[in-house]
Design brief:
It contains 16 helices and 26 strands. By secondary structure, the protein is of the alpha/beta class. Among the domains are: about 150 residues, Rossmann fold; about 90 residues, 2-Layer Sandwich (GMP Synthetase, Chain A, domain 3). α2 crosses α3 and α11 crosses α12.
């Protein structure tokens, strides 16, 4: 498809970007340290660390991994924590030491955690102690050699008496008992590493930076192989898009989405590190009153989030009283931005809620609306620099403007492959090298893309992918269930919610029993919100359940 979108680019946005500015993500970080050393890089619960301090601490962690643990280059290291100061310290330490980051959702159940650690072949993990009991249940099954434990208050730098009070009063109740023999405290790892020096490691664009896990139509989480080149390309693309509207060394970005999520990782953590921004880390964005109170402490210039987060903020009575005079823009991704939310956001803050689109497999950004957009336009924007898109029918032929088809993407930000899954990788790409997104879209004569449906049966709950097969596998294991089908239904709070249709084996099976069963194996956002019992499910002539008819209420 001819790049018609280039004519719609705002002034100053290049058609192409280069990744040659940085040899690796470690090189990018080193350059940021040189330029913005004294500036606060991350801020959490009132405690800030500068780029210089982050450099020193991440170097200490890198030295600990290399010299104390003797981990060979390219080792996979899992990070399992919310938005704490420890995350950027550990992540940049892992990358600069020549290792690969495996981001893990700290809310995973033992089953989910076991699959990811085993699949990735992770040899070490940094985990916040609130979730250590989950790791304890699977450690012997996954081949982990090293465990580094941290706590919510470990890096806050408060006097010891205050830390003890913090732990006893606020944290103790949230930390179930755990036993992980040989685990090392994060602060002790930093202390040991601070007495050592890491060896310089040559890392290039083709080396793996992240194994970023995502689901699939099979319901099995797969690791998207994202190289240093992929991530550098995407942050260069994102920076090129926002550069005309921001100032280096002056931005303050609110980071409420978890840094283990690809959106927040690339957009907030890495892209804004390049320009010397301060990331204000929000540990628990579900605590909306606390979140609004924290926002009131900062003259923030940028905020990213998902539709449900923006909606929750708007529904809090104190949000409208905040000072938005410094706010340059808000960026929404991860799920569709609703028009009602975008319009309310603009009315309250005076800024446009800019919608973007991406995938884990594309590092993640594919398209972004112009940052000077005056009003919500129902579009996911224009393909960003150095990105090609193609909208294709079932036969793989490109369709015309305004015609729906599967959105396919090619560009330097597209993953190399799925980790150890050659067949899945082959199915993910077209013969001419485009990634199949599974989303049905249209593109107009000006290059604006609109998502109209999803080819996949994926359910999107508050920006997180939920896959029907995984839900069905868990529920089908219940002895009182004969058949089950899972679909997504519209939900005003989370965008979509999980609904399941069950043919019971035992007629006395209850909704409560199903939910209790699910909670033992599924993260909270995957647990069904709605349950409907039926005598049969609609099927094709070969016995495949017709989820589409259930989703559309036609069966």
């Amino acid at each position: 498809m001819e790049k018609v979108w280039l004519s719609s680019y705002p002034e100053g946005i290049p058609a192409e970007i280069s990744i040659d500015e940085f040899a690796s993500l470690g090189d990018l970080f080193a350059q940021s340290v040189r330029k913005f050393g004294p500036r606060t890089a991350y801020l959490s619960m009132g405690k800030g660390i500068t780029y210089d301090e982050l450099d020193r601490l991440s170097e200490a962690f890198a030295a600990y991994l290399q010299q104390e643990l003797k981990l060979p280059p390219k080792t996979r290291i899992a990070l399992m924590m919310p938005n704490l100061l420890q995350y950027p310290i550990a992540m940049f330490g892992v990358l600069r030491a020549g290792y690969t980051v495996v981001n893990v959702n700290p809310l995973y159940t033992p089953r989910e955690l076991e699959h990811q650690l085993r699949d990735a072949g992770a040899e070490a993990i940094v985990i916040v102690e609130n979730f250590a009991h989950t790791l304890e249940q699977v450690q012997s099954k996954v081949g982990l050699k090293h465990v580094v434990i941290t706590s919510l208050g470990e890096m806050l730098g408060f006097p010891k008496a205050l830390i003890v009070d913090f732990v006893v009063r606020r944290v103790k109740k949230m930390v179930p008992r755990w036993h992980l023999p040989g685990a090392v405290r994060f602060s002790d790892a930093l202390k040991r590493g601070g007495q050592l020096r890491s060896d310089p490691i040559e890392v290039g664009h083709d080396d793996i930076a992240y194994l970023q896990y995502t689901g699939g139509t099979t319901g099995v989480a797969k690791g998207a192989v994202l190289t240093h080149g992929n991530i550098i390309a995407n942050l260069q693309q994102a920076h090129a898009w926002i550069k005309p509207f921001l100032a280096e060394g002056e931005e303050v970005i609110i980071t409420a989405l978890p840094l283990y999520h690809i959106f927040s990782l690339t957009a907030n953590c890495l892209t804004f590190s390049k320009i010397g921004a301060t990331n204000v880390l929000i540990i628990n964005p579900r605590d909306i009153p606390g979140f609004v109170k924290e926002l009131g402490k900062h003259k923030f210039t940028v905020i990213t989030g998902v539709n449900t987060l923006f909606n929750a903020l708007l529904n809090h009575p104190d949000f409208k009283n905040l000072d938005f005079s410094a706010l340059n823009f808000a960026l929404g991704g991860g799920m569709a931005v609703q028009q009602a939310v975008a319009e309310r956001w603009q009315a309250v803050t005076g800024t446009t809620l800019i919608e973007a689109y991406g995938l884990t497999e594309t590092s993640p950004a594919v398209s972004i609306n112009p940052m000077n957009l005056k009003a919500f336009n129902h579009s996911i924007g224009l393909p960003i620099s150095s990105t090609e898109v193609s909208v294709r029918n079932e036969d793989g032929e490109e369709v015309g403007f305004g015609q729906p088809g599967e959105l396919c993407v090619k560009g330097p930000q597209v993953m190399r492959e799925y980790w150890n899954r050659p067949e899945d990788t082959k199915r993910a790409f077209t013969a001419d090298g485009f990634l199949r997104t599974g989303d049905i879209a249209t593109i107009d004569e000006k290059g604006f893309i609109r998502i109209v449906d999803r080819k996949k049966d994926m359910i999107l709950v508050s920006g997180f992918n939920v896959y029907p097969n995984e839900i069905e596998d868990v529920i089908a294991a219940h002895p009182d269930v004969m058949e089950v089908a899972a679909v997504g239904v519209a939900d005003e709070h989370s965008g979509e919610a999980v609904k399941v249709f069950i043919v019971p084996r035992n007629p006395s099976l209850t909704r409560e029993a199903v939910i209790a069963h699910c909670k033992t194996s599924l993260t909270a956002y995957k647990v069904p919100h709605l349950i409907e019992f039926r005598s049969e499910l609609p099927k094709t002539n070969v016995g495949k359940v017709l989820r589409r008819l259930l989703r559309e209420g036609k069966a």
